[in-house]
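Run: sequence + AHM -> complex structure.
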Amino acid sequence: MMKSISLTQYLVEKQREKNLIPAELRLLLEVVARACKRISIAVNKGALADLLGDVGIENVQGEAVKKLDMIANETLLEANEWGGHLAAMASEEMEHAYSIPHRYPKGEYLLLFDPLDGSSNIDVNVSTGTIFSVLRLPEGATRLDESVFLQPGSRQVAAGYAVYGPSTILVLTVGDGVAAFTLDRETGSWTLTVPRMEIPEQTSEYAINASNRRHWYPPVVRYIDELLAGSTGPRGKDYNMRWVASMVADVHRMLSRGGVFMYPADARDPSLPGKLRLMYEANPMAFLVEQAGGAATDGRQRILDIEPKRLHQRVAVFLGSRSEVERVTAYHNEHRNG
Ligand code: AHM
Ligand code: MG
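>> structure
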């Protein structure tokens, strides 16, 4: 039988081989993984522990907060505030950055997260997940406010997600490929199950919420219509569509067997450049996807090159198999250039 490798062993070895994970970063990643384990247990208990349904308030995005959204957020904050590895945290569920309480030492990293992504799936027993992104505190930063987080995604030192599905799986990059760890509920440990995830360059599967079609801009309509035309259209082959409405689950499928995931900007509210949030949804997913050999753009430029202006800013997202992302991005550029 093959010897199993734990998350801790993987992190220690990555440090030994490539000097990529200093002790503070390892502590941070292990604490995040431990918090995800707790969240997984809560998601799993669901109605048995009266954990389904809304809290009765709206978050900064104007969305109803679910009980599990709040529990996941508090779990991540509590787990991470005392270790001395972080300078501050930011979350989809909190309007402002969270400073580490004065009673604890501060470290040099910043943690951003979407504590429970895909919240609309909580009450219907469909996969949800936690997405996280790790940045360094900029040198010379004096105030630990929102501004310290406003760094392009290319500066992330680590990113990942946990998907709470039939298995709980943690997918992680520290900038040297993407690895997946499955939670062994009997031993409580994260076990390396996919040492290197790779997205095939070609695909015949895509993910988009097609109910928004009437709001899409022309490049998206053009691209999707070509996929729908299948073997009788310009692409000359049939495509399959899947939409879980949990970005973690859709991206996990894509990292596992290829595909292209899209949440474009649309005409519903022209002031919003898409639905997904740059700092704790698009950036960490773009980092993972690029590390797995795929591509990620907003229809114009590489997501990881975007200079963020606000903590909760939204962005259009096209990510996955390189050839498809390049094509849909080219359609946007052609449209812009008339
Ligand atoms: P959330 O962070 O509030 O859960 O919203 C993000 C989710 C993504 O996981 C998913 O891809 C998308 O919203 C689904 O949107 P829609 O409801 O339009 O299908
Ligand atoms: Mg989300």
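>> summary
The mean pLDDT is 95. Residues 23-45 form the longest helix (23 residues).
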